[in-house]
Write a structure and sequence with these properties.
single chain; about 150 residues; mainly alpha; Ferritin; 5 helices
Length: about 150
C-alpha cells in the first residue's frame, strides 16, 4: 500500500504542476490569435484545477498526507517547471507533452489503486485520464496546420 501512497503523491504533484503550467500559459500567451490560445489554456487549467481538491481528498483517504509546498511539488512532479515564456506554439507543444506524462503517471497510480482494491480512487483516476485525453486532443488539434 505504501507504493500506492507514494505514486498517488507523485500523481498529485504532477497534476498540480500541470495545472500551474497551463495557468501560466493562459496568463502570458501573446500574439494575434491571443484570445484563441488564452481560452484554450483557460479551459485546460480550469478543468484540471477543479480536480485538485478531490485528488487531495482521495490521497488523504489512503491514510497519508498530501504534499502542499512548491518544493515538494518540484521534487515529486513528473511535469517539468517552466521558467521561460516560449512562443504560443511551443507552449501548446510543451503542454501536450506534459499531458502525455500525466496520462502515464495517472495510469501507474490507477494500476496500483486497482491492485489494492481502491476502486473509488481508481474510478477517479480513470476519469482524470479521460479528461487528459480530451486535453490532448484539443492541444494536438491546435497544433495542426502550423
Amino acid at each position: 500500500m505504501e507504493d500506492l501512497r507514494k505514486a498517488a503523491k507523485i500523481g498529485f504533484a504532477s497534476e498540480f504542476s500541470f495545472y500551474l503550467k497551463a495557468h501560466n500559459y493562459h496568463w502570458n500567451v501573446v500574439g494575434s490569435d491571443f484570445l484563441e490560445y488564452h481560452q484554450l489554456f483557460g479551459a485546460v487549467y480550469e478543468e484540471v484545477y477543479a480536480s485538485i481538491d478531490i485528488f487531495a481528498e482521495k490521497i488523504r483517504s489512503l491514510g497519508t498526507f498530501v504534499p502542499g509546498s512548491l518544493s515538494a511539488f518540484s521534487m515529486l512532479s513528473t511535469v517539468p517547471d517552466e521558467n521561460s515564456l516560449p512562443p504560443k506554439e511551443a507552449m501548446v507543444a510543451e503542454l501536450l507533452q506534459d499531458n502525455e506524462r500525466m496520462i502515464e503517471v495517472l495510469k501507474l497510480v490507477y494500476d496500483l489503486a486497482e491492485k489494492y482494491g481502491e476502486h473509488g480512487f481508481s474510478n477517479f483516476l480513470a476519469e482524470r485520464m479521460d479528461a487528459h485525453r480530451k486535453h490532448g486532443w484539443m492541444l494536438s488539434a491546435s497544433l495542426q496546420g502550423q
